[in-house]
Design the sequence.
């Protein structure tokens, strides 16, 4: 199984999981900002450059993650139904996530969309067999960033290999490079058509 971890885009001031537990979630369930939506759009376009295809998309129920999931699915043109998972909320239970993943085929390619520090804790749990991120030298999955884990085993313990940790800057570069190549190819085709039309007169 290939597991892709996508952090949602910018949603304004970040809120800790502890604070979410202490207040009504509706008051802290912030949507993506305009720039957050744009960043996710750019990231999703880079997925096409990387030729990624997902057999399942799992998302946190919070607005910012759900918006990121819908934007990604639309840009990739996928008809896969989004699965909203309470276990992907900031205070969610990773063991429940592993149980859900066990129900999927070993050949699955799964996109998980969620929050920090949940996602990096997930990386440490699966890759380093540590339950939480260490304070020094920790992995930093930035907003709109992507990590890839090749899942080795989900039973009895979840284990995997970290294959990618791509920053938004790298993903943006991939997206822009693809746009330039596409624009160049279109321009070249237009010029070729104009030349052919002129020669036929």
Sequence:
């Amino acid at each position: 199984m290939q597991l892709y971890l996508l952090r949602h885009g910018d949603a304004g001031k970040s809120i800790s999981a502890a604070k979410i537990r202490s207040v009504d979630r509706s008051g802290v369930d912030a949507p993506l900002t305009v720039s957050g939506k744009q960043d996710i759009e750019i990231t999703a376009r880079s997925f096409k450059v990387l030729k990624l295809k997902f057999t399942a998309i799992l998302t946190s129920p919070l607005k910012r993650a759900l918006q990121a999931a819908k934007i990604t699915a639309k840009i990739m043109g996928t008809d896969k139904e989004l699965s909203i998972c309470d276990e992907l909320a900031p205070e969610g239970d990773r063991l429940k996530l592993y149980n859900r993943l066990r129900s999927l085929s070993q050949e699955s390619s799964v996109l998980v969309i969620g929050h920090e520090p949940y996602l990096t804790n997930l990386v440490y749990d699966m890759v380093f067999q540590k339950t939480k991120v260490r304070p020094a030298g920790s992995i930093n999955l930035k907003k709109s960033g992507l990590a890839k884990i090749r899942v080795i085993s989900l039973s009895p313990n979840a284990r995997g290999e970290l294959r990618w940790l791509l920053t938004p800057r790298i993903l943006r570069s991939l997206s822009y490079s693809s746009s330039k190549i596409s624009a160049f190819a279109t321009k070249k085709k237009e010029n070729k058509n104009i030349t052919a039309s002129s020669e036929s007169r």
Remarks:
- Confidence is low (pLDDT under 50) at residues 20-27, 181-191.
- The longest strand covers residues 146-153.
